[in-house]
Amino acid sequence: MKSSLLFPGIYFEVPHPPVKNKLPRMDIAAFVGFAASGPLHTPVVVEDMIQFRDIFGEDIPLAWDTEKGQVVKNYLGSTVEAFFRNGGLRCWIVRVADEKRASSYRFTLPGVLQIGASQIKSVKLAARSPGNWSKNHRTNTVLEINQLQIVTQTLSIDNHGWSAVVRSPAVQVETGDLLKISLTPHDPSFYVFVDTVFMEENGTRLSGTNGFLCFEKAFSSPPAEIVQPLEWQDWCLCPLADADVTAYSSGVLSQTQSQIQLLRFEIQAWKGSVLTQRIGNVTFHPSHPRFFGNLPSDKQLYARHQGKIQPVDGLEKQLFVEQANQSSRFPFCASEEHTSKAYNGSRNYLPLGMGLLTRIDEIKGPVSDDDDVPDPQLFMEQDGLQEFHSGLFLDDKFISAGSSILGQEIEQHLYWDDTTSGLHGIYSLFPVQEVTLIAVPDAIHRKWDRIAPKLPNPFPAPVLEKIRTTQEENVILLQWSRVERAIAYIIEQDRSKDFKSPIAYCIRNVSQPVAGETQELLSEPETSHRVSLESTCEGVFFFRVRAKLLGEVSLWSNTRAKIIPESAFLECCTASPELWNLQLISNDDSSPPGKVILSWTSMDNREDALALVEKFELQQANDAEFNSVKTIDNGKDQSIEIKEQPDAVFYFRVRGRRGNSTGPWSNIERLGPSTLSRMTLQPLSQFEHDEVLDVHRALVRLCKARGDLMAVLGLPRHFRKENIMAYLADFLPTASPVSKATSGVPGLTPGENDSLGFAALYYPWLALKSRTFDSLKRTADPYQPPDGAITGLMARRALEYGPWSAPAAAVLENVVALEPPVAQAHWEQLLRVHINVIHNRSAGFMPLSEETLSFEDQRRYIHVRRLLILLRRLALREGQTYVFEPNSDDFRDRVRNQFEALLEGLYNRGAFSGVTTDSAYRVVTDESVNTNSQINLGRFIMEIHVAPSQPLKFLKIRLVQSDSQGMFLQEL
Fold this sequence. Notes:
Elements: E1 29-33, E2 44-46, H1 49-56, E3 61-65, E4 70-73, H2 76-85, E5 91-95, E6 106-115, E7 120-127, E8 137-148, E9 156-158, E10 161-166, E11 178-182, E12 189-193, E13 196-200, E14 203-208, E15 211-216, E16 230-232, E17 235-239, H3 246-249, E18 259-271, E19 274-282, H4 298-302, H5 315-324, E20 332-334, E21 348-351, E22 366-367, H6 403-417, E23 437-439, E24 448-451, E25 468-469, E26 475-479, E27 488-494, E28 503-508, E29 528-532, E30 539-549, E31 552-553, E32 560-564, E33 582-587, E34 595-602, H7 607-612, E35 615-621, E36 629-635, E37 639-643, E38 650-658, E39 661-662, E40 669-671, E41 675-681, H8 690-706, E42 710-713, H9 721-731, E43 759-763, E44 765-768, E45 783-784, H10 787-800, E46 815-819, H11 824-832, E47 835-841, E48 844-847, H12 862-879, H13 889-908, H14 917-920, E49 921-924, H15 932-936, E50 940-946, E51 955-962, E52 966-971
Parallel strand pairs: 1-5, 1-23, 23-42, 42-43, 43-47
Antiparallel strand pairs: 2-5, 3-4, 6-7, 6-21, 6-22, 7-20, 8-18, 9-10, 10-14, 11-12, 11-18, 12-15, 13-14, 15-17, 16-17, 18-19, 24-41, 25-26, 26-29, 27-28, 27-30, 30-31, 30-32, 33-34, 34-37, 35-36, 35-38, 38-39, 38-40, 44-45, 44-46, 47-48, 49-50, 50-51, 51-52
Helix pairs in contact: 1-2, 2-10, 6-8
């Protein structure tokens, strides 16, 4: 992006110095992940974080992590930042999301109206890219008027058209400009579009056939013979061709009061109450290069030009697009129905009611298609990330293709589709040839949704049965239902219905649990208990019971009451708490959406007792002990409809009331939400690595199909040694490539073992200084996957020493901590399965190894794979010059000499081992490879034997030129 001179002064722009390297560049990375803005599934090149943030926005909150108590954001932005901080200079970004669900906000363009054949409607711009990023943006317009001086006796208007000669204006008038012609200050005006501009001796002749007569509804004497004008608020419009305005306009065209004004306007972009950007000299007709419909979306700007800004037809239109993106990307673009390409001549655009000054009350925020403000509940849906799944990164057309045919499938698709816009996810990078490193940092998220996780079933409360008397005086029998796995029951007795000073009894197992002993071996406690009450204690006694498990207790049961001593007084309804024992039930299955029905009834089927109740008291609390309690109902009904509270768990109980007397409390019901107010990560206990497997499998196949890509992989943050081993067991090739993953990506087969050499796995996560964590505001999590820092390190090593330099024992910049720290005892186990462990050494944080996932000794190291990629690129680049050469001895010697010179340069820079060049590399083009049969088939073969910079056997690379297949390269 160019620097914008918004204010007077001198501005300096320091471009990146060109990279001095005659070899193919090996430092360019690509990152695929989630972003706030930017085009979807379209590679875009960036060279610093300012440019990245301008196009792709700030990090976006994805979901709430209940286990860590913080918001989880996307990792793409922090990964790109780590890449640049560790030495990277250039990278490609692919934003992924669900295209079918992602949508762009629309914004009314104040004062601009679309004039159709039968109606007038307002014009809407769209956000430049889908996403929630633009919800705080607003639009405004300001009319720009330039007065044109009319040459005397040259203005004419009739129903066939108009023409006028004006003196040379300060602002150049072009085809497509809109003019306003006012014959007198009080008469109707004409809005006309310029079709032709012709230079004459006395001025510039402007003419056209398209225009409108505009007058107010309250106009006392409208022009005659107007056929049913179009109406908009206080205005009426009529096309010139539909009304005979000659009689009206004749005789006044020569008056000195006639005026011609050139109308253009300014589009303002506001964020909240701050004016952020503006574009002036915008016009109203598609034939003009500065037509507002030429404002491109991100998809249009970057889609068809390999991630660079898409050039547009015409210098003026190109300048208009560049002006819209001088300082930063303009946030708005034309809606599809208003673009130049969509224009069919059946509509025009006029500025009716547009002001000359900015009015704060006219600034428009996002609207829906019916001009209503979008529902805030839908804001989270705009990004296309309602669900996390591997399909966001993949393309259904290619997920089943193996690495051997994947490249052919993509090439065939590109050939028939003739555009890269049809490639999605990681596959959109296949045509971007300069990329050599690729990472997918956002592929290791846990799933999220708004569905409330199922609450663990509360330890069920026992049901206390009706209290029975015994033959013994003042002895009662308490009985309750059995609770599975209970090791004890706790009974409380009190004179108070609220159990303010209870007496507790504990009914335990006969044998106590022993450490290591299973619950099934313990005997169950009794579910009854005899309570002796002193004869002198007359009055009401209340009882309740709860079950106890190891480390857990149930909710309290219902409360039962007993009057001691018994008498006929029990039949008196004014003091019969036993008759009011209630059972509370939640009918959540039959309840309407978002609501729960609570109902209660008598436990002993005493409908006569319920009839005595004057009202019921229903209480709600945030805790099972009802410390934070409030009464939510005091009515006669035996049920109530409760609205679900997002994210909250509530406890309920009910009792009857008659006069000043109240019955005991019922049992306690717990209700949790069915939905959450915000996206929430799935619990760690439910995590499965299938989605990560899908993306990593597809990415490894893509790298192998390209032949010159290396994948830098990371693992989820919570992974430990056991998780890593389980993951690798599913990832590494097996004889039966069965996939449990939801997107259907098949597992790697033994025939794809060579694909593992194109991927390297790093562990653990890193915390960077540049992303400090504010413990008070909790604004950012400093930890991120290692992908960005490692790719930046590889890019830096490639620029400083060459891609054959091993990216191990090199310090990572700005790293301050690891998550989790890896114990030295686990290093050997992880290194044995080719996990590159990052560790804190005295010099700083650095990777301890540089191994790919390949178990083939010759190609297991990253620097070897990167060297082979370089040689492949070098061979293909140089080999293009030999496509049409005859296969002669002279030609073969010339090719051998040229490649030996290139390899000698690499040898001198330390790419190969060996005391002499003969022991470091060898180029073979003689008859041992170019046999007569190969020559007769139209093939030229060259083999390159190299010994990488550590003592290994020679590795062979074969370059084959074929008449039928073109040029291709093989690793032998």
